[in-house]
Amino acid sequence: MAEERDRSVAEEEEEAMDYAPVVFQCQRCREILADSLAFIDPLKGPKASVEMGYVSFSAVTESVTIGKDTSSTKKTDKDYGCFYLPLSCSGCGSVIGKMYTSTPREFDALRDAYTININKVTNYSLGSGHSVPQSNQGAIVTAKDMIDNEMSKVRQVVVTLSKRVTFLEQVMKEEVEPDLEEHPLPAEKKQVPKVMVPAAKQERSSGTPSRANVNKMSRRPSQNGHWSPVPSRRGRKKARIEVSDDESDN
């Protein structure tokens, strides 16, 4: 009897696991859109809905927003001839499906139902995972909250770095100012341009002839047309003294 009870309990648990509710979330922002309890049997709908990759629900959460403008399908679409309102996620604004308002007879089962594209959602089976620890429950946030959190962290880092740079600039400025007071920088010396004085002016100012003039003055033309050196003043004086001595002897 005990073994039969254990088997029945195990079978009930397996059945419960096989038919565990499935939660459908937005693939972009992880907002909960619907669950399998409101799931419409796809066998009741048209085959085209399965081929298009749509699933329909009789009820959805408040995260699903119904559009106001009615649109029609194109000739190339498999649901051609239907009029619908677009369904979008209130968390991120992405279009996730349709609500058919006017359909051919083939799509009557999907009229006024929430038909969602399976490529726009992700699902999670209840009871398939482990419970989240109490310490990690705060980490389960939406994509928007995660982005805001990261932006606030970046903002704090930028503000901290800006304060450090300002502090370092102030410290360097305080260290440089005392050094300038103790050891001032030398003033730049003004270079006076040199004035080139002509040679003639230098002779007049100094009173001494230049070598070129001395050479010209120390030569005179001879009888044969050649230039001969002129004796200096000392030589002339000696010659005069010798002549005067000869005259006195005579």
UniProtKB/TrEMBL annotation:
Record-linked InterPro entries: Mis18, Yippee/Mis18/Cereblon
Compartments it resides in: Chromosome, Centromere; Nucleus
Sample GO molecular function, one term: metal ion binding
Major localization listed first in the record, in broad terms: nucleus
Keyword Cell cycle in annotation: yes
UniProt entry keywords in alphabetical sequence: Cell cycle, Cell division, Centromere, Chromosome, Metal-binding, Mitosis, Nucleus, Zinc
Single GO cellular component term: chromatin
Superkingdom of the organism of origin: Eukaryota
Record field: compositional bias (Basic and acidic residues): 175-191
Ranges where the record places region Disordered: 175-250
Any single GO BP term: CENP-A containing chromatin assembly
A Pfam family per the record: Yippee-Mis18
Domain Mis18 as annotated: residue spans: 21-126
Compositional bias (Polar residues): 205-226
Record function comment: Required for recruitment of CENPA to centromeres and normal chromosome segregation during mitosis.
UniProt cross-references to PANTHER family, sorted A to Z: NEUROGENIC PROTEIN MASTERMIND (PTHR16431)
Protein name: MIS18A protein
Taxonomic source organism: Branchiostoma lanceolatum
Name of the coding gene: MIS18A
